[in-house]
Amino acid sequence: MNRKENVLVLGASNKPERYSNKAIQNLKAEGFPVIPVHPTLKQIEGFSVKNTLQEVKDEIHTLTVYVGPRYIGPMIEDIVKLKPGRVILNPGTESRELMDALEKAGIPYITACTLVMLRTGQFLKQFQLKLS
Q: 129 or 62, which is more confident?
C-alpha cells in the first residue's frame, strides 16, 4: 500500500530498540513516505535522512516528535515554518513552548503515541476528524 501523506520523524534513530525507529518501521509497513530527521545519519530503514528541518522541502502531513522538551526550543521556528498538517507529541516530548507556538500558528497537535495510533487505526482517523 502506497500512501501520499508524508510523515516527518523528528529525532529519528537507526537503533531498532528506539521508539522513533519502531515508528519508522510501522509507518513504512503501512506504506507512508517517511522523512527521518537526525543531525548526523544518512539513512534509516531505507529512507534518506534530512540532517536539519531546513532541508525538508516536502509538504508534511504529520510531524511526529521524538525529541525531548529540553532540546526542542531551537527547532520550534523551523517546525512552524514547515506548516505540518498536525504534530504528534509522543510521551516525554511535551513542550509548552512548542504547543504555544503551534497554537499561535494554527497547527493542530495531539499528545499521543504514534505507535499506539498506528496499531489502533487512529493515525489517519484522528487527523481526518480534526479536518471535518
A: 62
